[in-house]
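TA notes. Do not distribute before section.
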Amino acid sequence: MRANSPIIIIGMSRSGSNILTRILEDLGLFVGKKKDRNNEAIFFNQLNVWLLGQCSGGLENPASIRYLLEDKEARALFVDFICYIMKTPKAVSFLGLRKYIRYGTPSNLDIPWGWKDPRNTYTLPVWLDIFPEAKVIHICRHGVDVVNSLRVRRKRGLLRLKERHTWIKPLYWLYLMMKFVPTNRQFIDLRCASMEEGLLIWEEYVNEARTHVRKLEDRAIEVRYEDLLTEPNPILKHLVEFCGLRATDRDIERVTMQIKRERAYAYRGNPELEAFAIRVAERLRAQGY
């Protein structure tokens, strides 16, 4: 059978890509054997982290990827290197052992497949070098809700290093050292200490993602998180067709049960967030909100 090109899900962190990916997975999209708690395939996540790391970039400063994208020689070599990695046993993390034995590399998959990672928003040109016929789904969410979610995640990260009972603190910090330092994982999102800076990151991601969507034309679609929650059926029917899935209307009805409609425009009702939304209303309107 002919190999399928992947579905690459892009969009700012905390924008709803988790629920979207879980739904698409339930409807038949293969998104990896080994995934983290955000439903991101660890294999492709690590490759994206590596790509950004070569440019001193990361989730909060991904635009530095331009140094790689503008270097034609390095870019071509990186693409070849990633293609090699996808053929090694490391790909078992994504494919699982049975699929690895059968296909040898994700590039040979003949089923609907893909992966999600906010970093895809900036590393996408590299992936399109590898998969020139890939399709892209961009999911976006109201900027104030994204900003607030980033703040909550930042506070949760800070709690890792807060004072604890004297007897447990050394053991807990040893656990943190083993978990975060060797893997270069982030403790907190430093740029998101203020809502203004968080909104700026959101704008950067949305603008970058929409640039890709415009260039790819019919090979890319944008999904608003709020529309997915409030009117899931028509959107999911379109996504099923776009991804080449075999899901039925009954399947779509089933997965909509996991959607929490009240999470749309969650900032409403919070005086601080509503005041911020009014203050940055012009910037929100510029992005369709």
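Switch to the second chain here.
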Amino acid sequence: MNQVRHIAAVPAAPHILAVSRTDVLTLAGVNASYDDNHVLHDVTLSVPQGSIVALLGANGAGKSSTLRAISGQIRKVSGSIMLDGRQLAGRPASEVAAAGIAHCPEGRQVFGPMTVRENILIGAFTRRDKAAVEADVERMFTLFPRLRERAGQLAGTLSGGEQQMLAIARALMLRPRVLLLDEPSMGLAPNIVNDVFGIIERLKDDGLTIVLVEQFARRALAIADLGYVLARGAVVMSGTSAELASDAGLVASYLS
């Protein structure tokens, strides 16, 4: 994508992007519904290996639904969702996780009555390599020193920022090919948002591929490589983060 593309809000047919050999995750013509509520309309996007791809748009645009469709939390899905050439559309969430998709949900959703360490270990539920799991727990405590300090503390007693760090650590325990991050800054103080975005950038530097849904669009574009703008469940624009950030019409219509 070398320029900002303006796409009809709900295209009559899927708009298929050229798939790069470096793309780890691709969606083509994805439709999704909650019962009779059709929430995604022919969504097509590509996620290159090692990149951050931002999904942007107003509330109700379909951003979180796109993540849920990818991670198998919406079962009524048609179209193609490919991870490393493997078809995941319609697969149950447990199979999608085992394939390498980790979903860090909106609102964090930590297990409050369980300790920080227990929450982290839940993220490794698909793994059987106990020694490697313990090594990764130590890696999480190195990445998130506050969690080490609170390893035996109940997750429900953590601050919002600490719970967000815990939710990300739990997702990373899967050793994912792709991390789906849904509104990681929601409800956090500005200084904690800075910490969280610093962590996201560090994960990218380590080579992790990330799909990011974020309420602060400009902040998301500042660290993303590519962006897709959704409206009413359809992709209406896409481009590099620099192209999208410099598009005055886009900012006025979708990101202000």
